[in-house]
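User: Second chain of the day. Same drill as before.
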Amino acid sequence: MRLLVCALALLACRPVSPASLQWKSTDLQLAARPGQDSMNAVFAFRNAGDTAVRILALDPSCSCMSAEPDKAVHAPGESGEIRVVLALTGYVGRMHRTLAVTTDDAQGRYTELTLTVDIPEWVTITPRFLFWRLGDPPEEKTVDISVADPEAATVDKLECANPRFQTRLSPRETGRYRLAVKPVDTRQPAEASLHLNVTTGGRPQTFLVYVAVR
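Assistant: Same format as last time:
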């Protein structure tokens, strides 16, 4: 009995190893360029424990995200990294994705890494909708248009299929334009989609501005 008590006391006095993988950061925030197709990111860590740690699985929250470690097993004191590639095509605004890292470390088997990317729009249009009430004065209203990269994006032309709206597109300064719209009259309901044709990164795109008399 005395031997058992001594053994338990020795075990209790043993130092407890810290959580093995210590991350430089588990939350990265990055900014993309206009038209950038993908973003590369690196989550760095160090094995601060006294035993080797094996990375068992990497589970991204989206199919647009792929990840791989520099290697599967990291010895005590060794540094490593998780390399992430995030596809950006078709996304604008703030993109938020996570990556679950599973290891065989008994003290920290699961870690969630977070990647946030701000993706600028090629073209910013404010506002996207112009509205006149029936019987209102047929006054001119304006829309401000700006391109994120004037060297890579150009506003080519504006198309309006409804002759009941008069339109005028004018450059203001580098990368900025003003669209003026005026209904012929407001006595009858009318609506139209204005097609703004823009070349971005060598590819033609169409942006819409909606106008209506109701």
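The longest strand covers residues 93-103.

User: Great, on to the next one.
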